Amino acid sequence: MYKTVQGKLPWHDREEWLFPKMDRNRMSASFVYGPKDVNDAMPWIDVLCTQHRTCIQAGGAVGIWPIRLAQLFDRVVTFEAHPVNYECLLFNTQDIENIESIHAALGREPGRVSMCLPKSEKGNAGAYYVKPGDDVEQRTIDSLGCTNVDLIYLDIEGAETDTLLGATETIAKCRPVIGLENKKNCFWKRFGYKRSPVEMLIKDFGYQQITSYHLDVILAPTEHIAALNERVLVARGGDTEIVTKAPDAT
Questions:
Q1: Distance, CA of 66 to CA of 102 (rounded, Å)
Q2: 169: helix, coil or strand?
Q3: What confidence category does residue 27 fall into, taking pLDDT thresholds of 50, 70 and 90?
Q4: What is the C-alpha separation between 6 and 91, in angstroms, rounded?
Q5: Across the beta sheet with 136-139, what order do the strands follow?
Q6: Cβ(147)–Cβ(173) below 8 Å
Q7: What's the pTM value of the predicted model, to 2 decimals?
Q8: For position 182, what pLDDT does the model report?
Q9: What does the pLDDT read at residue 34?
C-alpha cells in the first residue's frame, strides 16, 4: 500500500518520504516538478497576501505544498480525501506543528462522497476526484468558521467550483488570495458546470486574475489591486525584482 521514496526538497531536510505504492512515479515526480511549481508560486503568494495567518489548502496529497506553505503561514489547514494519500500526508508532515491535516473532501455542502481514478491516470495517486458515494466525509470551508484566512489554494481535480461555493461566507468575510489548478481539459465540467471557477471568481466574487504558471492561476480581490501597485514581486527566470505597478491580469 505504501512505499518510501528517497529525495530532498529545497525547503525541507527530510530525506525519506512515504508515497502510495500504486503511484508510478507520477506524484513522486514532485521532487522534480513540485519544487518548481511551489517556487514559482511562493513569491506571488508572499506579496499578494498582506498577512500570513491561515491558509486553507486542498488536496494535501503527500504534503509537498502544505510543508512549503507552513513556512510562510502561521497555520495551514490541509484536506486530503484519499485514505492512502492521507496516511502519507500525516507521515511526511508529522514534525511540523502548524499543519492541521484533515481526512475529508471539500465541497459545496457537507455529506459523504467516494473517490474515483480516471483510467487515463492509472498509476497517478494525485488524480483521484470525488463522485457520489459514502466512503469519505465531505466538508465545507465555511464549516471551519475561520475568520483570518489569507489564502485558499485548491488542486482538487475539478471540485474547485463546488468548494468555492461552500466557502462564500469565508470569502466574503476574509477576502483571501485564491490559487487554483486550471487545467485546459476543464475538469470542472465533470461536475456539470458550464464555466470555470476562475470565471466565476471574476464575475461573481469580485476577483482579478493576477498571474498564471504551469497549470495554476492566482487571483486577488479587485479592491486590493490598487494597494498592491508598490509591492508586487515578479518572478522572472528564477530571479526576482520589485516592480512599481501590478502586472496586467493574464
A1: 12
A2: helix
A3: low
A4: 14
A5: 105-106, 136-139, 111-116, 129-132
A6: yes
A7: 0.90
A8: 83
A9: 67
CA distance 52 to 93: 20
Determine whether 153 is exposed, middle or buried from the number of CB atoms within 10 Å of its CB (0-12, 13-18, 19+).
buried
Class of 2-242 per CATH? alpha beta
What number is the average pLDDT over the span 190-195?
85
Given a contact cutoff of 8 angstroms between Cβ atoms, the answer to whether 91 and 61 are in contact is no
Contact of 130 with 159, CB cutoff 8 Å: yes
Q: How far apart are CA 95 and CA 145, in angstroms?
A: 26
Tell me the average pLDDT across 204-222. Answer: 91
Q: Residues 133-160: what's their mean pLDDT?
A: 96
**Amino acid occupying residue 124:** N
Domain map (residue ranges) of the chain: 2-242
| DSSP 8-state code for residue 248 | P
Helix (H) or strand (E) holding 47, with range, is helix 34-48
Would residue 123 be called left, alpha or beta, if left means φ above 0 and alpha means ψ between -120 and 50 degrees?
Answer: left
CB contact set of 61 (below 8 Å; sequence gap of 6+): 27, 30, 80, 85, 88, 89, 125, 126, 155
Q: What would the mean pLDDT of 38-62 be, rounded to a whole number?
A: 92
pLDDT range class, residue 9, cuts 50, 70, 90: confident
Kindly list the distances between the CA atom of residue 88 and the CA atoms of 20, 91, 115, 218, in Å, as whole numbers in the listed order.
7, 5, 17, 27
**Who contacts 40 (Cβ-Cβ below 8 Å, separation ≥6)?**
213, 214, 235
Q: Which residue type, as a one-letter code, is found at position 126?
A: G
